[in-house]
Task: inverse folding
């Protein structure tokens, strides 16, 4: 069960009398998390960036609003807020037409420790884009495991000039509407099944998939790898808690009528810092004598940004060893490396149709995809945080490899696949987690030993040909 961020949330002070109809003032607390990985567990403690989004909306106003003003003060130093030179920070407009919005977003370098509230993952196929460009299928999975998520938005921002995208499909299309925006970006959004949901709702505790088709340009003469950006937004409401106890319900509207110039002051503990003081936000208009109802609609928005990355593929010959550094994505397509290939912690390897003379060693990699290659020397992939794919059933997805040396797959946390390969040497599979290791359809000239995997290894009904003893989980494979 994913949880909510344990962070101080805004406390609100409003003054007024009975209900009416008029402008709406709102405050959204933003929690940002960026990642280069392909999956994020919503219940795992992470460092979240803090920000605020304040708005005045005139959707309920019978006439234009004059002099709408948002003013923000904080006891934190201005250096914590990019672009801010002094407080109060004030934004005002001469008027706000009926149906108009005025927004003021305040970003900061402040952080808080907490959890996001929903699990998510990103996958793309194929990762390699050929010269001249090609299509990719991007799949995003979101599991809204927190009852107090109340709105979900999944978007695919543009990374390349000339890139276009189409909506594709959603696993719950009745509750998730999709729009292809000008410029090619795609956004799904929908209300989540919670006590305040008013119509068709996205389900809780049921993984949702969103699939987009990307047309990615590649004007170069070499293939490239491309991992597209994905932005997921989940807003929360309901009875929220921090380390000190309950903070109340922040997703209900309260209506107030004011006979003259109005203001709403929101004392926000997260703007106070560790020193005495009172961070505050004042929203006001210059309409004196009119009766407007101000409704406060506050929530918290958790944004997970999967960052995009691209790299040119190596296609020639390297006489010497090759190292994939932390955070680096390296693609080999028809290349030859006359030396060892090493993937360091946080590196990503995509290798197709290549020859490695010296073996492959990956420790702590983000992901490793090895398809249709010849590796002369040991193959060892350990402690990877993302998927490990070595071979497949042939075809365009991932063709089998020829591995001439011992193979070790150990302590990987997002599942491993060893499928259809010809392996001249012993195979050891141990202590992998996340998904059951799939050891299927290989020809192994040597022993096969599997142990400590959770879930246990499987051959998925495709027997291996093993010229040697089979032991542990893989006995009889």
Result:
């Amino acid at each position: 069960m994913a949880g909510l961020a344990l962070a101080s949330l805004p406390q609100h002070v409003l003054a007024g009398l009975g209900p009416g109809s008029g402008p709406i003032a709102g405050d959204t607390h933003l929690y940002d998390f960026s990642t280069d990985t392909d999956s994020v567990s919503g219940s795992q403690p992470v460092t979240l960036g803090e920000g605020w989004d304040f708005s005045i909306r005139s959707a309920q106003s019978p006439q234009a609003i004059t002099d709408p003003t948002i003013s923000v003060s904080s006891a934190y130093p201005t250096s914590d807020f990019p672009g801010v030179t002094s407080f109060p920070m004030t934004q005002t407009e001469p008027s706000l037409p009926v149906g108009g919005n005025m927004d003021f977003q305040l970003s900061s370098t402040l952080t808080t420790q907490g959890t996001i509230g929903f699990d998510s993952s990103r996958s793309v196929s194929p990762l390699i884009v050929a010269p001249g460009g090609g299509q990719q299928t991007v799949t995003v999975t979101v599991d809204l495991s927190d009852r107090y998520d109340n709105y979900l938005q999944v978007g695919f921002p543009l990374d390349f000039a000339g890139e276009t995208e189409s909506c594709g499909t959603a696993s719950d299309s009745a509750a998730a509407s999709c729009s292809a925006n000008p410029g090619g970006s795609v956004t799904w959004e929908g209300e989540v099944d919670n006590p305040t949901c008013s119509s068709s709702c996205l389900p809780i505790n049921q993984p949702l998939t969103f699939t987009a088709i990307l047309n990615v340009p590649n004007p170069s003469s070499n293939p490239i790898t491309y991992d597209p950006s994905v932005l997921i937004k989940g807003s929360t409401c309901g009875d929220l808690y921090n380390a000190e106890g309950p903070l109340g319900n922040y997703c209900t509207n309260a209506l107030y009528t004011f006979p003259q110039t109005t203001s709403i002051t929101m004392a926000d503990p997260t703007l106070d810092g560790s020193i005495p003081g009172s961070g505050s936000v004042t929203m006001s208009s210059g309409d004196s004598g009119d009766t407007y109802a101000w409704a406060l609609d506050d929530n918290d928005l958790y944004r997970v940004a999967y960052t995009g990355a691209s790299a040119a593929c190596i296609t020639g010959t390297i006489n010497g060893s090759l190292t994939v550094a932390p955070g680096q994505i390296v693609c080999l397509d028809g290349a030859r490396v006359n030396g060892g290939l090493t993937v360091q912690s946080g590196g990503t390897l995509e290798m197709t149709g290549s020859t490695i003379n010296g073996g492959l060693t990956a420790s702590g990699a983000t992901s490793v995809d090895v398809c249709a290659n010849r590796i002369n020397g040991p193959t060892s992939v350990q402690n990877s945080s993302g998927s490990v794919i070595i071979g497949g059933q042939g075809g365009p997805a991932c063709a089998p490899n020829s591995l001439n040396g011992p193979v070790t797959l150990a302590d990987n946390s997002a599942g491993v696949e060893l499928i259809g390969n010809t392996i001249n040497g012993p195979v050891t599979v141990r202590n992998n987690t996340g998904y059951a290791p799939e050891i299927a359809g290989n020809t192994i000239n040597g022993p096969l030993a599997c142990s400590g995997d959770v879930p246990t290894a499987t051959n998925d009904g495709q027997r291996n040909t093993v010229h040697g003893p089979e032991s542990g989980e893989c006995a009889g494979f």
Q: What stands out?
A: Residues 1-21, 238-269, 272-278, 289-297 have pLDDT under 50 and may be disordered. The CA atoms of residues 96 and 176 lie 31 Å apart.
